[in-house]
Amino acid sequence: MIDYFETDSCCPLCQTDMKIKWQRDTIPYFGDIMYTTANCENCTFRFADTIILSGKEPTGYSLAIRSEDDLNARVIRSTSGTLLIEELGIMVEPGPISESYITNVEGVLHRIRNVVESTIRWSEMDNDFEKVEIATNLRDTINAIIDDPKTAPVQIVLQIKDPLGNSAIISANAKSYKLSEGELENLKTGMIVLDAEKDEIIYDISDEAGPIGKTE
Predict the structure, then answer these.
(1) What is the C-alpha R_g of the chain?
(2) Distance in angstroms (rounded) separating the CA atoms of residues 139 and 128
(3) Could you give the domains of the chain?
(4) pLDDT digits 0-9 by tens, 67-126
(5) Alpha-carbon torsion, ordered 116, 168, 74, 92, to 10 deg
(6) Sequential DSSP letters for 4-42
(7) What distance in Å separates the CA atoms of residue 33 and residue 29, rounded to the nearest whole number?
(8) Full-model pTM
(9) What order of strands is seen across the sheet that includes strand 59-65?
(10) 201, 192 in Cβ contact below 8 A?
């Protein structure tokens, strides 16, 4: 079995030849996955994704964050995965420049906190003190959860919903479930999806193209 190979491709931005790298790996208790990366040497285009090689049904995962063990739970967020923390009013949707990553729950919270801190800085420059206050309170809540989920002012549940089944939360405490038709209708994939049987595009990111910055 080949664990690493490269394929020839063309940069979608500048049309320069580039390589797509494929790396196979195995995650304990979960199974085989494939990392894909591409980086154009002529422009700024880059791409990364994590493809789960089994269990391709549209799947959702949820994990109540109540302990340090929960903070250490592994999180696989593919380019097609939507992250939700409803208790904090947070939703991170896929977009045209989405990249996948593998981290833990604490790492996800750090990523969100970084975005919140950027919001604070920009709001201070705009003298939008109401937004500064809201974002500062959110940042402080995230810090409290990272420090000790048991004593944090808010008990949160991390959710990932992936219509392509390529995202996951790996923990004995995590719950997985098949996404309903209603949930699928409201989820983005961040990419072009082809229906091989009908030979047609069933979702295209260009249909919802807009300014970069609202999605990740």
Answers:
(1) 19
(2) 16
(3) 1-54 (2.20.25), 57-208 (2.60.120.1040)
(4) 999 999 999 988 788 999 999 999 988 876 667 788 999 999 999 999 999 999 999 999
(5) 0
(6) EEEEEEE-TTT--EEEEEEEEEEETTTEEEEEEEEE-SS
(7) 12
(8) 0.70
(9) 90-92, 82-85, 156-162, 59-65, 175-178
(10) yes
Amino acid identity at 55: G
The whole-angstrom separation of Cα 95 and Cα 80 is 8
pLDDT digits (tens, 9 = 90+) for 113-127: 999 999 999 999 999
Closest CA to 190 of 206, 178, 170: 206
Residue by residue, DSSP assigns 154-191 as S-EEEEEEETTS--EEE-TT-EEEEPPHHHHHT---SS
**Cα angle vertex 77, ends 188, 143, to 5°?**
110
Six token digits for residue 71 = 């903070």
Tokens of 161: 């919903």
